[in-house]
Design a protein that fits this description.
The structure is a single chain. The chain is mostly helical and 173 residues long. The chain has 2 domains: 77 residues; 74 residues, Winged helix-like DNA-binding domain superfamily/Winged helix DNA-binding domain (Arc Repressor Mutant, subunit A, Orthogonal Bundle). The protein is 75% helix and 0% strand. The chain has 7 helices and no strands. Helix 1 runs antiparallel to helix 2 and helix 6 packs across helix 7. The radius of gyration is 21 Å and the shape is elongated. It starts with 6 loop residues before the first helix and ends with a helix.
Amino acid sequence: MASRSQASPIAADAAMVTELHDAHGAALYDFARHLGLSDEQAADALQEAILRLWRELQRGTIIERPPAWLYRTLYRLAMEQHRWRDRVSRLLPRLAPHRTDYAGPESSDRLTVWAAVDRLPPRQRHVLYLHYVADLTFDQIADVVGISASASRTHASRGVATLRERLGNEEGW
């Protein structure tokens, strides 16, 4: 069996990805903006889609229509971003129900909430991230973390209760 250099396939894949970005990058970016992403979010989503394409090519995946694959991936990334913002907007009132003046999920409240989540015990923090950011069900979280679904629900419930207590005691909450 002849030995094949690893640099050649990687270089070919990198060249193809670069060519795709050069040929379709602006249109893909515009597509992401039309899907409701901000300039920064659209640029990040486009970069993530390109990176995912390159990873798939490195795995040996044959992608028959790479531009279509990129559009589909970009669409999915945009929908993930919308689901995440929706979850955050629904989470904020649950954490501090007495507040009614939320500026939305893009406000500094979001940063405050996630900073507080970062201070939770690891299991609670992981469950909340997986549920509210990755949009996983408690059954899926159980598989990821290696606990039961009821334990994942318990960790989420305790984490939310701790956040309510901590954020409710801070000035302005």
